[in-house]
Amino acid sequence: xxxxxRLDHLVRMSDERGLFEHALxxxxxxxxxxxxxxxxxxxxxxxxxxxxxxxxxxxxxALEFVLDAQAPDGRVRNRMDAHGTWTDRPSTNDCWGRAVWxxxxxxxxxxxxxVRQWAADAVxxxxxxxxxxxxxxxxxxxxxxxxxxxxxxxxxxxAVLADFADGFPAAPSPRWPWFEKRLSYANAVLxxxxxxxxxxxxxxxxxxxxxxxxxxxxxxxxxxGHLSVVGNRGRGPADTGPQFDQQPIExxxxxxxxxxxxxxxxxxxxxxxxxxxxxxxxxxxxTGAVMVDPVSGGAYDGLEPAGVNRNQGAESTLAxxxxxxxxxxxxxxx
Length: 334
Fold this sequence. Notes:
The protein contains twelve helices and eight strands. It has helices at 8-12, 36-47, 53-69, 94-109, 113-127, 134-150, 155-166, 189-201, 204-220, 248-265, 268-281, 314-333, and strands spanning 23-24, 27-28, 34-35, 79-80, 222-223, 226-227, 302-304, 307-309. It has a two-stranded antiparallel ribbon. It has a two-stranded antiparallel sheet with strand order 3-4. It has a two-stranded antiparallel sheet with strand order 5-6.
């Protein structure tokens, strides 16, 4: 059996309310508060672990945070200050999509039946909403796919998948098949969601389109045999060479998308990208920097031209853990 992943840095980054967003080095920055984006991702990660120890505590902490973030009409708040006060209004921005993702995963995959039921009840409220943001919709699709996997006839979840796939933008030109002028953030979730929706709905053309777009995205983010992901300023058709600051969350997004593509197709190409994502954290990147603190278990916040950003925030550590989960899934089927 593959051993459980280290979650101790995530424990240190949390308190009785939830997971703090930022760190200074390995120390949590309480003054910056919490966000639903990270706590929803924590729910995704911990729902894939055995329901014991750190994973047990963190999964319930994440679920309670996401449930508190959800408004009665299914919209979601994102930002809570250090005193436990929400500082924004409910919306259908990325936090809504990630909340649907986390709740959907917990509803299907969590080991505890009570957690599954709480998550299932909550995700129903949010599945009736829609967002104008393609990325928010894509994250919601990942959660809706979990609901459909548990109940193939779930009309509300299937409607989310169909709305996303039907509205997926056309590419402006064959030379730049991405539907935006520049790659920005969370790029891989878009083809992943199209692949997932197409597979769940039995729409082969959507699966093939998603796989082709994912393959292009991998190609433009591979350099000299290793991953060289888009930097924090984005990438356009004329941009060349490595970009910085590279964010661990972009690497994890590729691992998630390619892991899903491998599960669907069993094409070794996709498995290779998951392995490359793990190697990115372990020196196989544009500067040869190790991206994980071996003492704390936290991941560094960014790959920079001269090394790393040594802050170990929640997002980066979750990105590392989720990438290692994808590697573990590969090992289970090999």
